Amino acid sequence: MCYIEAKLLESGEKILLDELIGKLSAMDKNHGNGALSIFVGLVKGELNEARVHELEYTAISEVAAKRLEEIARDICTKYSLSAVVIYHRLGRLKPGETTIYIVTMGASRKNTNPAMMEALERVKKEVPVFKLEKRSDGEYWVIGDGVRYRRTLTPSPS
């Protein structure tokens, strides 16, 4: 049995990692898990020599939440884990703020670390969360893991 928790977070919603770790550890009654891997994504302050002012994340919420859960279930099965947690933020985020949390728990780092990395790559490529980078050199839509398209603003008709 694998514990799955996958959800979208609003920009101000707090995640307390100690509480999450405690909750997951408490589920392991037989103490069969030897590893818990955690990835926390942060908003970068500089990218390609441009200052990042903020990221704005939007999503097709129902589809994104469902896809996050599907990815967590797939990863849990593939790597024989006992828990997968994926949280992705929405809204406006400043440099240094957290964007995504991925936690995997299992028997060994040999399955939790690759599981965590695969979950991250799949979230970036498969979940309909849209990222707009607002930078000193303009605004860019970011697709997947680094393909950027300059946002062009067209004047609205009078």
Description:
With 158 residues, this protein is an alpha+beta fold. It contains 3 helices and 10 strands; from the N terminus they run βαβββαβββαβββ. Strands 3, 4, 6, 8, 9 and 10 form a 6-stranded antiparallel beta sheet that branches. It has a 4-stranded mixed beta sheet with strand order 1-5-7-2, covered by helices on one side. α2 runs antiparallel to α3. The longest helix has 18 residues. It starts with a strand and ends in an 8-residue tail after the last strand.
Strand content: 35-45%
Number of E-state strands: 10
Question: How does the helix and strand content classify structurally?
Answer: alpha+beta
Q: What order do the SSEs take from the amino end to the carboxyl end, as H and E?
A: EHEEEHEEEHEEE
Spans of 5+ residues with little confidence (pLDDT < 50)?
none
Report the radius of gyration as a whole number of Å: 17 Å
Sheet with most strands = 6 strands, antiparallel
The tally of helices reads 3
Rough outline = elongated
Mean pLDDT: 93
Features:
elongated, 158 residues, 4-stranded mixed beta sheet, alpha+beta
Report a brief summary of the structure.
The chain is about 30% helix and about 40% strand. It has helices at about 15-25, 60-80, 110-125; strands at about 5-10, 35-40, 45, 50-60, 85-90, 90-95, 100-105, 130-135, 140-145, 145-150.
